User: Fold Glutamine--fructose-6-phosphate aminotransferase [isomerizing] from Streptomyces nojiriensis.
Amino acid sequence: SAAEKGGYDYFMLKEIAEQPKAVADTLLGRIDASGSLTLDEVRIPVSVLREVDKVVIVACGTAYHAGMIAKLAIEHWTRIPCETELASEFRYRDPILDQRTLVVAISQSGETMDTLMALRHAREQGAKVLAICNTNGSTIPRESDAVLYTHAGPEVAVASTKAFLTQLVACYLVALYLGQVRGTKWGDEIEAVIRELSDIAAAVDTVLETMEPVRELARSLADKNTVLFLGRHVGYPVALEGALKLKELAYMHAEGFAAGELKHGPIALIEKDLPVVVVVPSPRGRSVLHDKIVSNIQEIRARGARTIVIAEEGDEAVVPYADHLIRIPVTPTLLQPLVATVPLQVFACELATARGNEVDQPRNLAKSVTVE
Ligand code: AGP
Assistant:
């Protein structure tokens, strides 16, 4: 009913708007007054976490994209090797797992059969399993050694939005916590990022307030057949997520690529007026990556692409090559997906509406996939 949708036309719009609160709720009570993480609810003893020598993340769809970002955060802050794998592929390849492997299973619903089968396989091999889940008491957390709940509240729309942002927050918490309990050389950075996390809900809110031009742009592209998405580092999973949202909702051909791969094939797809969304890393910190992506934008624009550039506030280098510029707040490099994903959600939702599609219940899809 209209009341359930809180005055919005679709649950998806409501859930997009709820993201600042979902993010804040997921952080609530997990950072103490001294700026340290307290994840006592993660019932895996610190002594076990200190012995972990490999992290394996398993998930599907949007949760898998969160896992790809988690890998970068975990490896950077903890120096523990981490791999992220599609849950549906995992157990069929005889993965190497033992008592020192921490498996992280990410699932909004907690009922996804592929993810459940992957974690069962991991536990049979002696690995410890930590679930990141949005649904209290669902099967995946019940069958795991420990759970870190995301506090997004119920997500009704089939296309995941607020659950994704809170999965990211939970992944950062796990990465930072592992770094904290193991004491890495990134101690100072870990402390600084924990502080920045406290402001991130406000940054998401800022993005939401500036979405009207994105909606306008989406409507203007309603008769296109294809949209490409490019990103690097944490921007690559964001590109994949933007493409997945567009497939699910707008039923358009949408592909995400790692921008560095362009020259290895995908650049052949670029033609006049093709919309290409580019997620630009911060010019601070990893500036080499930033420069490379600016060259990619130049290359595709020279071949006629219509460039839709998502770039940090104050990044002037992209301005000459952006047909459409979407600004996002400045964040630490690894946290950028929390703000960069939001315009892509709004974009897909508006494009779907403009094409007359059912936003909350896309064709052929179910909210939770309980079959393999
Ligand atoms: C997201 O928009 C999708 N509907 C889908 O990819 C989803 O994320 C995936 O099926 C995993 O679901 P889960 O998080 O409930 O396990």
Summary: The chain has a mean pLDDT of 95. The longest helix spans residues 162-182.
